[in-house]
Automatic annotation (TrEMBL):
Pfam families: GerE. The keyword Transmembrane helix does not apply. Residues 630-693 form the HTH luxR-type domain. The keyword DNA-binding applies. This is HTH-type transcriptional regulator. Transmembrane segments: none annotated. GO terms for molecular function: DNA binding. It comes from Nocardia seriolae. Keywords: DNA-binding, Transcription, Transcription regulation.
Amino acid sequence: MRTRVLQEAAGNPLALLELPRMDLDALPIGPLPLPHRLSSGFQQQIGELSGAARTGLLVAAAETAGDPLLTRLVLERLGVDCDAVAEAECAGLIDISAQAIRFRHPLVRAAVYYGATFQERQAVHAALAAACADDADRCAWHSAAATVGTDENVADQLESAAVRAVNRTGYAAASAAMERSAALTPDQETRGRRMLMATEWAAAAGRYQRAGELARQTKRLPLDLGGRARLLWVEASIEFEAGNLRKSRDALFAAADDVAIVEPERAGPLYIEACHASWIMGDPATALDTRRKLETLHLPPDQRMALLAAINGPLRLHADADLTGGITEIRATIAVGHHSADPALMLVAAGQAMLIGDLEDVRTLSQRALDFTQNQGMIARFSIAAIYLGSAELMLGRLWEAEDMVTQALRISRDIGQGNTMASGEGYLALIAAIRGDEARCQELIGYPRRTRGQDNFIDHVHNEWALSVLDLGLGRYETALDRLDTLHRTPNRIRGHWLHLLRDLVEAAVRAHQPDRAGPAMAEIERWSLALGSPFAEAIALRSRALLNSNGDDYVRALKLQAAEGLWYDHARTALLYGEWLRRERNPGEARTHLRQALETFDRLDARPWVARAHIELQAAGAGTPHVEPKTAAALTAQELQVVRLAASGATNREIAAKLFLSPRTVGHHLYRAFPKLGVTNRTELARLSFP
């Protein structure tokens, strides 16, 4: 729909403001409806044309491809002189070539189409349908536009076109076509079936408000038991995305229980979704009850096992405390996801891969789901896939890539009303802000889910508390960080995803707060996970945490090698900082400086300002010193350049410097570009080592 609005507006600012408010559920023929104040400017010019020329324009406006041969055929059917369109070309309204008829501006097309009477448009669409008989989709769309009342033959043609549209133009167009097919359907049961499909496809397209409206209409139509369950599923999905998790879960349970005996194959996916909602709410007891219901469904064993695989791994990890069994099941699900063409299963596998730290699997599966959903117009799942991919980039330490991907997901989720997905994205951006030491931004982002959903979403609550603890850790508030992390660790509902990262930070907070005894339970859990996973990611966390508690330099070295090999550069920098601090205390300042500089450069590249500051302080303590800028060198800088480099050396970003000095970020970058050669530095890391007179 966004693409269609942009095409229709053709850069007109007023059109961009007005068109999104119009009826976007029209069939993909004819232009979008045009507000009167936009069309009135063209009506006088159109009205000065002859009737034949206006009819020629109307055919061109209703025929989306701009095919001159088809336009000629239709005009002949209507008994209109085919040369009449030349009058419109002379008036400057259209351009005609052998290949196409083009309106000089798309808004003229809309003014022509909606300036005609309904009877005129109806006649044109009927003629177009007859002329397009060899093109089933276009024939169906034009027939539907020409039909008043009900007509099962046209409705059936349009249903077939809608099904094909799923693969060709996406779910939004398919939903609009199926909705029109339902309106043309005389039989109430068939109308209910078609309306249900239109509702499901509207939700798949991320058009939740429209899906809700269609669901309310569909409720008034006759549906069988399976149809009612499907409708409840759509309504539950809408509630879930709005952040009403408890209401969503209860609706899913009710729908699944209704069909469990007569249609167990429909009940299974509903129980899976209910289990997912329970898990997010931090309610493992209900999730376990869901598993018991799944196990009793009368399904073929292989089908039942496939359903259980979607939830068994996570439940065995946390609810059953069976790490080895849970990891085995999760890896089997990941393998299935890699071979699946279903984006829902790809995302299930990606989510489970995140549980065990298989970040490359998360990236691969999420990217596949992203590509698939984009091609199919599955906007709702697209934003979820983007969040998953962004979270993987974040855990891999690719902060800029993570920020870009999550921001893209947030734009979509805001547009389509995905409150749940939006809050998850805000949580990941809060963690990025925490790493960068931006306290105000972190608090602002965390406030969104708290305002909109309270504590229903336990997963987001844990992620937000983790972000605050990372902020505290970076800013040196170690006891506060430790208290937050310890509270999370002692909760009876163990979270999914990023758990080892949280435990890692708990150990560091305990050591820095001089309370290493409080790290004992977390360290024991890290060791269990590392042994069960057998992955470089988990082993590196265990080695680093062990080195912190036991002051073991060899463990630091091994952790650094593993993190470098896996490309975990943010984690590598955190470990290098800890190792550098340890080496300095062990009176090995030369080697300490090597690792501290590595940490500083990585933190600087990621704009992790609190960590840049700490690495800088440690470097000075290790004897690196702070090179002093001689007055004569500083004199080579302009007054503005000196202001900029002083702020940049203190760790301020270009945007922060720009705001402080009332400049643009581009101008700040230009000043730094000119100042670096004068100071003999090439980057911010080297600049941070200088002191200015």
